[in-house]
Amino acid sequence: LSPDCSFTCHYRCRALVRLDCSGPAGAGDEDDGSEQELEKDTNVDEPSSWESVELDPAQVEQRIKEYNSQINSNLFMSLNKDGSYTGFIKVQLKLTRPISVPAAKRGPGGRPGQRTAGVKRRTSFYLPRGTVKHLHVLSHTRASEVISALLRKFTVVDDPRKFALFERSERDEQVYLRKLADEEQPLRLRLLAGPSEKALSFVLKENESGEVNWDAFSLPELHNFLRILQREEEE
User: Fold this and answer.
1) Which residues does the annotated region (Disordered) include (predicted)?
2) Which CATH number is 205's domain given?
């Protein structure tokens, strides 16, 4: 390998990869703009490196002071009298599939603002790439509650179980993703990691668990799946 050669590879596959970097100069220099991510682990059974850290009330207060002194905005954390704390987390939405929102309601004459009895209409669209949202949360706010709050902000009517919140970090020029368990507390992770987004940031993605959770789909969506399968079989 050339000393100038670098590549992104799954950590378990490094020993199996061999590259020939003797191609023409300039080859492969173009960036397609897509981020190559190394998902070290998307299994919630493996604990986060922050999970073993326990802080007493005095340490929490000290961490909050250090956190507030390092940020360049007014998105401060605040300590409450009961020992809990509040603050902001930023979540990047990286969804590859369209989301569903309520369609504009029209009356029989086609005028908006009038209900059509018995008909629930939806419209779907793709969120722009790189969409981010700041949420003001409590220290005990769970990851599942953050997902529900994000969907409400964008008036998304899809089932929250279709989505998952991921912890993203950058180490050794690699990007690592870990799916948060429903009970994990994002603001606590934010405090332990500090304000650096390289150390920790949050990403909302589709919940790719490897198993299809059919209960998360509506009856019309399930009928669409059946029609698609039937069409494929006929073809």
Assistant:
1) 25-52
2) 3.10.20.90
pLDDT in tens, 160-176: 999 999 999 998 888 99
How large is the average pLDDT for residues 89-99?
A: 92
String of b and e for 104-134 (b: at least 16 CB within 10 Å)?
eeeeeeeeeeeeeeeeeeeeeeebeeeeeee
pTM over 0.85: no
Amino acid present at 227: R
Phi (first) and psi of residue 114, to 5 degrees? -110, 140
Q: How many domains, the chain? A: 1
DSSP letters of 165-234? EEEEEEETTEEEEEEPPTT--HHHHHHHH-S-TTT-EEEEEE---SS--GGGS-HHHHHHHHHHHHHHHH
Residue 21 lies in a domain: no
106 DSSP assignment: B
* Residue 168 located in a structural domain: yes
What is the widest separation between alpha-carbon atoms in the chain? 71
Task: Compute the Cα dihedral for 153, 155, 161, 162 and give only its sign.
Answer: negative
